[in-house]
Every structure is written in C-alpha cells, then in structure tokens.
Amino acid sequence: MGERVVEADGIRLCTESFGDPARPPVLLVMGTGASMLWWDEGFCRMLAGGGRFVVRYDHRDTGRSVTYEPGRPGYTGADLVGDAARVLDAYGIPAAHVVGVSAGGALAQRLALDHADRVLSLVLISTSSAVPGGDRAPAPPTAEFMRFVSAVRVDWSDADSVVEYQVACARVLAGGRRPFDEAAARGLVRRDVERAHDFAALRNHDALPEGELPSASLSSIAVPVLVIHGTADPMFPLSHGEALAQQIPGGRLLVLEDAGHGVERADWAVIVPAVLRHTAGDHAGGDL
Question: What global pTM score does this model have?
C-alpha cells in the first residue's frame, strides 16, 4: 500500500502496511538501530497473505522517520515504546498482535506492560527480558561477538564505512552455522543507508537512555506469548529465550536449530506459520 508518514505528538514516523485493514492487525517492531526494511517485504507479504493486516515502521533516527542530531538523541527508550502505540493510533487500531525482534522484542514487552490494552498477543524473537527477573542470569554473548564489538571501527561520516560495518555485524549475528549470504546483506544495508535521512544518526540508539521502566514484572503479562529463538544466536544465546518463556505465564518457546540473531529467510517457512497460528488463537500449551 506504499509508505505513509504519520505524525503524533509532533513525532513523524514513516510506516508501511500490507494486506486488508479488516484482517487481524500485526505490528512489527524492529530492533533499535534498524529501519523497517529489516522486516523483509517478502516476509510481510507472507503474513498478509495468511490473512493479517501487517504494519511495519521506521524507528526514530532510522529510515525516513524523524531524525535527531547525531550524538544528541532527544528521546528515550520509553519514547520508542510510545511510538509503537502512536503507530497503532495512526491506523485506527485499538489493539494488535505485536511481533518484536531483538531490542524490538524488549520494546514489545514494555508495550504489553505499559499499555496492556493495546496488545492482543506477543511474538518475541531473538530477544531477552526487558525487566529484571528470573532465577538465574542467562548466558553472556559469545566470545566471537564480544571480539567483534571490541574491535569494531566505523567512520560515521562515510557511507561506505557504515555499510562495511553493518555487513560485518550481520555476518557475526548470523551465528556461523549456516552459509552467510553476503550479497543479500550488503544489498539490504546499502538500501537502508541510502534511504535514511541521516545514516550517522543510527548511532543515537547506542547512547539512548532507558527512560522510565515498567514497574510490573513479566509475570503480569496476561496475553498469549510465543518466544522464537535460534540455537546459534551470538548476542542472546538460547538461554535468554528459555528464561523469557519461563518468566511469562503460559509462554511458549519455538527453537530454531542453527539460526542466529534475527529473522533469517531460511526460517520464514517455520516462523510465518507459527505467527499465523499464534495470532489466530492457537495457543496450545507447551513448547513447540
């Protein structure tokens, strides 16, 4: 249906929808530092083809949404949670099924805690608990991931340098157990950088203050929750997904063998049907 820039509370957010607005709504929330392009159009159309009205959007400082001076974000993580509700308001959606990946999964959790009436169900992919809790700390990031983080060098004034950095990051996040499609990753990153108002503003997400955190625990989430996690995730090893599913009453876990961090094309054939079943009300107990 094409991109649509919405404005609420003086905030301009670029959005795009797929499918019939009369169908059950699914809001896709990407991780921080990533625009809505990281929800692949093919993935969105598969969900829409399954009878869902799908909405994706650019976070602030990504894509064509409002952009702030690099190094000086004028907002907090809590404001990004509010943005999800603003997008729903713009489309006249009282409540939606919310699918979040990575930090977008944390935002989705916080949305369910702060605005419970706006969330019909949650799908949490490659993410971790957004609030303290649980009996034990999940495993830390892998040594390879930490080596990459400590060694990274990027010139934020140079588009080519940013592209090389993001492609290298995508390679590490893929987990190393499957072939890495560098051409596809490079094409996506290049489109993302060229489309952004100011690609240097992406780094604002790295310095973003949390803002006010929810006072409630994950155990208070009452909507159905599906956690999807890869066994090769280097940022949030599988124990993060396991802990998350255990902390939320009735939470179910879908494990993707050899999958890394994010929504990989190789897993669409598993993820899309699982999301469609979940958002149709198929919430049978137990892990998948």
Answer: 0.96
pLDDT above 70 coverage of the chain, percent? 97
At 208, phi and psi to the nearest 5?
Answer: -75, 125
Pairing of strands 96-101, 25-29: parallel
Cβ neighbours around 157 below 10 Å, total: 10
Q: Where are the alpha helices (DSSP H) in the chain?
A: 41-49, 77-90, 103-114, 143-151, 159-173, 182-195, 238-247, 268-279
User: CA Rg, the chain, in Å?
Assistant: 18
At residue 211, the pLDDT reads 83
Mean residue pLDDT of the chain comes to 94
Tally of CB atoms within 10 A around 118: 18
Contact (CB, 8 A) for 63 and 69: no
Which tokens in the block code for residue 201?
A: 């503003």
How far apart are the C-alpha atoms of 218 and 240, rounded to whole Å? 14
Kindly state the average pLDDT of the residues 90-100.
98
Q: How confident is the model over 39-61, as pLDDT tens digits?
A: 999 999 999 999 999 999 999 99
Helix (H) / strand (E) containing 252? strand 252-256
Which of 241, 256, 252, 259 minimizes the C-alpha distance to 284?
Answer: 252
